[in-house]
Amino acid sequence: MSVSPSAQAIPAFARQTHAPCTACHVGGFGPQLTAFGRQFKLLGYTLSAGDKDNVPLSLMLVETYSSTRKAQTAPPAKGFGTNDNTELQQASVFVGGRITDHLGVMAQATYSENGGLLGWDNSDLRYARSSAAWGHNVVWGISLNNNPSVTDVFNTAPSWQFPYMAPDLVPGAPAAPILMGGLAGQVVGLNAYAQIDGGLYLEAGGYRSLSPAFLRDVNADFSGRLSGVAPYARLAYTWNLAGGNAQIGAFGFHAARGLAGANMQGDAVALAGPSDKFTDLGVDASYVLQGGDKHTVTFNGLYLTERQRLDATYAAGISSNLHDSLRALNLNASYWYRNTWGITLGEFADDGSRDLALYGNDGRPDTRGSVVELDWNPFGKADSWMQPFANVRLGLQYTWYTRFSGLVTNIDGAGRRASDNDTLYLFAWVSL
To answer: Where are the alpha helices (DSSP H) in 245-384?
Structure first.
């Protein structure tokens, strides 16, 4: 499957606005945003009501269980078995909320039992204003952030798409476009954005690599240094409809990245030499229908295509081809009853050029399948116990594969079929 986003639910925002979590989030839990939640983010997390002295901190814990249809050939990480693993997958602290009238922040640090490290996660510092210009209402701002597309307010974006929680101890797709988490936490970006009359949304910015030494200090991955600035652009249009809204949009991103190596201590370092070039283009669409306080229906879709020129990888003998391509499709639909009971159905497909050196097996990265998730959120509504301090989601997710890294029914070298990676995943997600 595609890279899963970090799940986010920040009760500090609810305490700042004196609104229940359901005001900003579908299902009363992040990261899927309502129309109000989108505006809260675009305005820099600064909207507030009453007392401005709320402590802008939130905590999140996610305990999980994952099991594949057939045990893996080796443990997925130190301290875990080949199957039926329980894990404290995330223990996060958030700093989130208003700093000044026009400056706000959402920053996350996360500990995972897999790896045993506390490191920085998605972070977004915003300056935003609302004004009138030439007869139009404009919300505009500037974001300093560490993950391309983390600035987005739609749940089609790579950083925020379904599944919002996914297992990290089971096999996943061997490749996805670089915009789908390939630079998360490794870069710093400055983006300018504007929303005009609540409909047209424009965003443009650029990203540069952070040093391997800094990334080591914050326990983040390093997969190679970007050459210069990697430009990012976003366009979207929203129609406000009776009881909901619809949106279509597009993404563009280009990056040139060198290879990473290791020094004598095993720490990641940048290697001198040529760079691999990645050009990502995508289209997306979403629809939200809210039937009063009882029913909410959402649809989200994203299609990304990536062209690659692998000067560094090919020269190092890691790829069979100088030119490759990747494609990714993610579709999902959800229904929520009273923001308490939810069901989501999803389809995903990752495929691309045949490259034996990169992907093994038959050389194809093709991974396709479906996912169903059932959720129960007992708290988070306006009348919930200890609202907005207590937020809980219990989820059951099942993923099945029709193709996995090129495998359908054929057997790979380890004797596994695509369906052997079908995964049952249970999670308890608590936010305070």
So the answer is: 311-315, 356-359
Token readout for 209 is 């690599």
Pair of tokens at residue 365: 């990265």
Q: DSSP character for 6?
A: P
Q: Using the structure block, give the residue that is written with the tokens 């760079």.
A: 275
Tell me which residue of 316, 307, 312 sits closest to 353, measured CA to CA.
307
* pLDDT computed for residue 27 by the predictor: 86
Q: Which of 1, 3, 100, 8 is nearest to 391 (CA)?
A: 8
Give me the half-sphere count of Cα atoms (radius 13 Å) on the Cβ side of residue 346: 27
pLDDT for position 51 = 63
Surface-to-core class of residue 146, CB atoms within 10 Å of its CB (0-12 exposed, 13-18 middle, 19+ buried): buried
- Report strand pairing: 244-257 vs 367-376: unpaired
Instruction: State the pLDDT at residue 174.
Output: 85
- The pLDDT, as a whole number, for residue 7 is 57
For the chain, the C-alpha Rg in angstroms (whole number) is 21
Contact 275, 312 (CB under 8 A): yes
Q: What is the H or E stretch that residue 14 is in?
A: helix 11-17
d(CA 220, CA 265): 17
**Euclidean distance between CA atoms 93 and 390, whole angstroms:** 15
Q: Which helix (H) or strand (E) element contains residue 35?
A: helix 35-42
Alpha carbon distances (Å) from 80 to 4, 75, 104 = 20, 6, 39
Kindly give, in sequence order, each residue whose CB lies less than 8 Å from that of residue 36, ignoring residues fewer than 6 positions away. Answer: 19, 23, 24
**Residue among 208, 209, 257, 204 nearest 232 (CA):** 204
- Extract the tokens encoding 101: 């009238």
Residues in the chain, pLDDT under 50 = 1-4
The pLDDT score that the predictor gives to residue 1 is 44
pLDDT on residue 333: 98
**Collapsed DSSP state (helix, strand, coil) of residue 191:** strand
pLDDT at 3: 44
CA dihedral angle for residue 367, residue 373, residue 377, residue 382, rounded to 10 degrees: 80
Q: 182 to each of 11, 177, 223, how far by Cα in Å?
A: 29, 7, 8
Q: What's the pLDDT tens digit per position in 258-287? A: 998 877 667 788 888 899 999 999 999 999
